[in-house]
Amino acid sequence: MLHLRVVCPTTTTDDVVRVLTEHPGTTHLVVLPGVAVQPEGDVVEADIAREATDEVIAALCGLGVDHHGGITLEQIDTALSDAADRAERDAPGEAADAVVWQELVSRTGDESRLNITFLAFLSISCLLAAVGVVTDSAVTIVGAMVVGPEFGPLAAMAVGLVRRRFDLVRRAGLALAVGFPVAMLITALGTVLGEAGGLFDRNALGGEHTVDFVYKVGPFSLIVALLAGAAGMLSMTSAKSAALVGVFISVTTVPAAGYAVVAAVLGDWNRSLESVAQLIVNLVGIVIAAAAVLLVRRRTFTTPDAGRPLSTG
After folding, report:
1. How many domains does the chain have?
2. Name one Pfam family in it (predicted).
């Protein structure tokens, strides 16, 4: 379940209470008159079944609460209550299948922001991939996959396309368009320094290697990207975030970027271009599959987007 807190003008409180009491998926309703200071008004709290959340939030936004007050949601880990059990039982649908669209837009918007932290993680993951390439270490390649933060912007792009939130698409596109070149430039510098320091020689890519799958583009490259994108979006929309780890270690986005840089620095332009192609195939495949999952789920959850601007903090 989720804990809902609404700050609203006193003139809207009765309508908010009506929305919450009439929906079978809500319980533990509390009204605190006049306690809100900024913005001034009342506070209404309730516990709400996840599968009822999208509909209730849409109704509250229809009352203008998101403009004249505020709506917050928090995850409840444990609820020992017969009333809560009834609310979850009476709410239409299943909690694992429920999409809380506003939560999804907010989450992907935060994870797609271009900032120092995003660039640092992406650069570190590309450097790890480069180390995995020159040492022929599949374990290090897997580590680079896990560290890479690129799924956030890719998921945000899919959400933005499906919900027609082009501000979200622009933010995600900017993070990817700036993040990967910056990370690859830093990795190129590291590769040059590593070669100059004698950590490896220009024959590091010669012959067959365990990690050659990173740059070899084929039908399975797209298939894996599609499956990973679908699994990743299912994980995000059903709050089963543990499955995201499996997504991270199944696609060769960051490893392909790292391989492309190493191959370019060492003069193997064929492998470098193939790695870039691998990167593009994975990025596009993930977005397509993630958007397809959202399109299928939208057929059941059709409440309109509140259209709130993305946070910039």
Report:
1. 2
2. DUF389
